[in-house]
Design a protein that fits this description.
Radius of gyration of chain A: 21 Å
Number of strands of chain A: 0
Strand content of chain B: 25-35%
Distance between the termini of chain A: 54 Å
Oligomer: heterodimer
Structural class of chain B: alpha/beta
Strand order of the largest sheet of chain B: 6-7-8-3-9-10
Helix content of chain A: over 70%
């Protein structure tokens, strides 16, 4: 094993890792925002809203992320006649894909809150939206921290798929270095270790958040 | 204050309320008793539209339900639940001030002053900063009453307010309710506490199989029940 090569490749790989973190963080953020609305739509009593949200979730969970990336990057320009920036395509595909999973997490979180909470809020004259905002969502938020953490980790790993559209994140950087050096073993090992460090860090962060809010609950 | 005309409510194929007529006057305390499953809770829940009636007409304080903005009606109708339903992520103070601030637009300081006054009234002035789970059941229910009162409702609905409480806590909640009745609050109370019905009720309704089977003053109902079902019910619980 060529340790010198690994040391040399590290800085380049790490800049790739920064890009991976950026895509993941942005996609998670957008995914949470979209997912919250889709999740609420999933429990809507309006049939059409409910149905549209269900189809959205089914489509995104029922097709591979890789295919979704191709759809955004290669198929969409055929329709619009405009090339799409790989960074935009990567973020769009990852965040939309993630929003479907996040929506299901939020839906489950909201439905796990006792129905009496909504009744109490409504009986005081608050609207459905006010009760959601001040009563239901804050309580659901604490319960969705662990599954959201899992989704964050899954997305970080899945973001390696955007390397197929030539977007230079961690995995793509690794491929490019190997193309030059033929050092498959060393470089893929480095790439794997960097991913591992990132995912373990996230799971620690999530565990910390979980503990923090547990304490809040018992205050 | 409240007028219910020919109220019917079905859940699927089960008809829970089969034509209920009821008038509650201002400052009147009406106690609703009856076997479980008789529809008494459903009747109460229809009055603030937590259950939508299948047919019939309900008018609360001149507002016809189904035609008026329901949030306006509910702001005037306080509701106390069997299971308290306090907001567990908020302090007692925030539980009480939330709705006045969001619905009535009451300034925070005024809402908090109001809340403290109400907490004093229910004997919990020192627990404003506590979270619901740090309180006993009886204390939680008293906070729930204060929360409902904070909206300055014209009517208070109580849905079996003491049924989920340990026996030694029932009294402290009933005392608060008696105090309210003395102050002239219009109240409709679903309960199994016959002592309370006798002492505080202006009128007692006996609900069975989705209709009001018998009604009258506590004296008439408890001492001279006419209906056989009513006699049978009383013999089981008294």
């Amino acid at each position: 094993m060529n340790f010198e090569l690994m040391a040399q490749a590290m800085p380049l790989l790490l800049t790739g890792a920064v890009v991976t973190v950026k895509i993941t963080a942005l996609s998670v953020l957008l995914g949470i925002i979209i997912g919250l609305f889709v999740g609420i739509a999933r429990i809507s009593t309006y049939r059409v809203v409910h149905l549209v949200a269900a189809v959205y979730v089914d489509f995104l969970r029922g097709t591979p992320l890789l295919v979704q990336i191709f759809l955004v990057y290669f198929a969409l320009p055929v329709v619009t006649g405009q090339r799409i920036n790989p960074f935009v395509a990567a973020i769009a595909a990852c965040s939309i894909n993630s929003s479907a999973y996040v929506a299901e997490i939020f839906r489950a979180g909201i439905q796990s809150i006792d129905a009496g909470q909504m009744e109490a809020g409504r009986s005081l004259g608050m609207t459905w939206a006010q009760t959601m905002r001040y009563i239901i969502v804050p309580q659901a938020a604490r319960r969705v921290i662990p599954p959201l953490g899992n989704e964050f980790i899954a997305l970080l790993k899945d973001s390696s798929l955007v390397s197929v559209i030539g977007f230079e994140e961690l995995t793509r950087r690794g491929q490019l270095i190997i193309a030059r050096t033929y050092a498959s073993l060393e470089i893929w090992l480095c790439v794997a270790i960097i991913y591992l460090v990132m995912t373990v860090s996230i799971s620690r962060l999530v565990a910390w958040l979980e503990r923090r809010y547990k304490i809040d609950d018992q205050r | 204050m409240i007028s219910v005309r020919n109220l019917r409510k079905s859940f699927g194929s089960v008809e829970v309320l089969r034509g209920v007529n009821l008038d509650i006057a201002e400052k009147e305390v009406v106690v609703i008793i009856g076997p479980s499953g008789s529809g008494k809770s459903t009747l109460l829940r229809c009055i603030n539209y937590l259950e939508e009636p299948t047919s019939g007409e309900i008018v609360v304080d001149g507002m016809k339900l189904g035609e008026t903005d329901i949030n306006k009606v509910r702001a005037e109708v306080g509701m106390v639940f069997q299971r308290f339903n306090l907001f567990p992520h908020m302090t007692v103070m925030d539980n009480i001030t939330l709705a006045p601030m969001k619905v009535r637009g009451t300034p925070k300081e005024e809402a908090e002053a109001d809340a403290l006054r109400l907490l004093k009234k229910v004997g919990l002035a020192d627990r404003a900063a506590a979270y619901p789970e740090q309180l006993s059941g009886g204390q939680q229910q008293r906070v729930a009453i204060a929360r409902a009162l904070a909206m300055k409702p014209k009517v208070m609905l109580f849905d079996e307010p003491t049924s989920a409480l340990d026996p030694e806590m029932v009294k402290e909640v009933l005392e608060v309710m008696k105090e309210l009745a003395r102050e002239g609050m219009t109240m409709a109370v679903v309960t199994h506490e016959m002592g309370f019905a006798r002492e505080v009720g202006d009128r007692v309704l006996f609900v069975d199989y989705g209709v009001i089977l018998e009604q009258g003053t506590p004296e008439e109902i408890f001492s001279h029940p006419k209906e056989e079902r009513m006699q049978e019910f009383l013999s089981k619980i008294l």
